[in-house]
Amino acid sequence: MIALTTDQTKTCSATGRPKDALKRERILAAATALFMQQGYELTSVEAIAKAADVSKLTIYSHFTNKTELFRVVIEQCCDQLAAPESFIAYAKLPVKQGLLQLGASLAVLIYSNDAIHLQRIMQSEAMQHAEIVKVFYEAGPQRVKLAFTELLSIWQQQEQLDIVDINRATEQFFSLLKGEVYVKAMLLLSPIPTADEIEQHVQSTVAMFLATYQANPIMDQL
After folding, report:
1. Nearest-angstrom CA–CA distance, 118 and 39
2. C-alpha radius of gyration, the chain, whole number
């Protein structure tokens, strides 16, 4: 049986939770561990059921199929570090401060061991399981980018940004946030950057982005 980590099981031991909710949490914890270790194709519903100590029937009572379970796992992993639904809160901040704070959260997600490992798995499965890669993209990267685009639109309405094509600006921000550092980490050519290196990278990313799109850069110096 797959041993669940303390973080994965601690919520399952909370008192007062409905029995079905506890089982759902155990299923998600087991599925997360297995998908991260083995990828989508090699992870069976039987293995998830065994690791979660539930029946296959119980899994199917919570999730239509393995694909839906995978989608929920990706959404949950994304939400733990940078929930797209929370991006709107950054609109209350000055654009530079908001981008620095959100950029830091996004960078932690992008450069996490689990995210990089899962990205490698998705690339290896892309040819044979294009539909699963699509599920991964829609549940993770696409949700994040759509929320970021909405945030840029609000800053634009506040006249803090001056952007002609907000969708393109979103793509540019994430391209800067990843850059060569991400490519080398993905290819195992260099280690995952340290916290200090990530902070410096986020600062330079935000500076370059605002050099192009900030509406009133002089105000940032006052």
Report:
1. 7
2. 20
Residues with Cβ within 8 Å of 52's Cβ and at least 6 positions away in sequence, in order, are 23, 26, 27, 29, 30, 31, 59
CATH architecture of 20-76: Orthogonal Bundle (1.10)
- Over the chain (222 residues), the average pLDDT of each successive run of 10 is 44 51 94 90 94 95 94 85 85 97 93 86 85 89 94 97 97 95 90 94 97 79 47
Q: Say how far apart CA 85 and CA 37 lie, in whole Å.
A: 28
- Among residues 159, 145, 166, the alpha carbon closest in space to that of 87 is found at 145
2: exposed, middle or buried (Cβ count in 10 Å: 0-12, 13-18, 19+): middle
Amino acid of residue 67: T
Q: Transcribe 25-39 into DSSP letters.
A: HHHHHHHHHHHHHHT
Q: Determine whether 36 is exposed, middle or buried from the number of CB atoms within 10 Å of its CB (0-12, 13-18, 19+).
A: middle
Decide if domain 81-213 falls under CATH 1.10.357.10: yes
Residues of the chain with CATH 1.10.357.10: 81-213
Cβ-based burial of 59 (10 A; exposed 0-12, middle 13-18, buried ≥19): buried
CA–CA gap between residue 140 and residue 132 (Å, rounded): 12
Please tell me the distance from the alpha carbon of residue 32 to that of residue 115, in angstroms, as a whole number: 12
Q: What's the pTM?
A: 0.79
- Which amino acid, one-letter code, is at 90? Y
